[in-house]
Write a structure and sequence with these properties.
about 220 residues, Rossmann fold, single chain, 9-stranded mixed sheet, alpha/beta, 9 strands
Length: about 220
């Protein structure tokens, strides 16, 4: 049995580098495609806690996990802006595929441009920052945090990551071009600035951004 995913979801999940017996937190996880890909890479060994704020979307995660036989996925309803005490330093890997302006996917969803106001963008930036705080506290020392969006706005991407790192000197930004070159997964058509940006192309790929950080202490 197979599941269909878009390219950006596959890249985000692969950057987490989840492996067997890891404990992984997937925030904003619905409908569960990224969690499923990580479960496959983990040989269905370990634990993936997959969360979303909407109960109906959490049901989708559970249904998809059951359909694919991914027994290590535990789906939960949770607000990603509110850290949970039991999460503190509890996870080896954390993925935050954050809500965003979606300006990397306007080709497939052109109405996005009609409904984005300045106030909406500012609220999204605040939301992303709050979610990054939740994600950060869940990462153990030596663990990995991946932040991704489907927008090309610098304020939601590079600026958001830079602000996070200024608040959290215990995290170090990973040079994704160097890492992906060394492990043979470098994407020749990506733009790198230690982070990774995929630009929309005529063949149908959407825009995408990702950064990976390691907690050093």
């Amino acid at each position: 049995m197979v599941t269909v995913q878009d390219e950006s979801s596959m890249i985000a999940a692969s950057l987490v580098e989840a492996g067997p017996n890891d404990k992984v937190l997937d925030l904003c996880a619905a409908p569960g495609g990224k969690s499923l890909m990580m479960a496959d890479r983990m040989d269905d060994r370990g634990l993936i806690v997959s969360r979303d704020i909407h109960p109906g979307r959490v049901r989708l995660i559970r249904e998809n996990a059951a359909r694919m036989g991914a027994s290590i996925i535990r789906a939960e309803v949770s607000d990603a802006t509110r850290p949970r005490p039991e999460d503190k330093a509890a996870f080896d890997k954390v993925l935050l595929d954050a809500p965003c302006s979606g300006l990397g996917i306007v080709r497939s969803k052109p109405d996005i441009l009609l409904h984005r106001r300045k106030e909406d963008l500012e609220q999204l930036e605040t939301l992303q920052s709050e979610m990054l705080e939740t994600a950060a506290q869940a990462v153990r020392t030596g663990g990995r945090l991946v932040y991704s969006t489907c927008t090309l706005r610098k304020k939601e991407n590079q600026d958001q990551v830079a602000a996070f790192l200024s608040r959290h000197p215990e995290f170090t930004l990973i040079d994704l071009e160097k890492e992906m070159t060394e492990n043979g997964s470098r994407l020749s058509d990506a733009v790198y600035d230690r982070c990774l940006t995929m630009l929309p192309v005529a063949k149908g790929r959407e825009g995408f951004f990702a950064a990976a950080m390691i907690r050093t202490r």
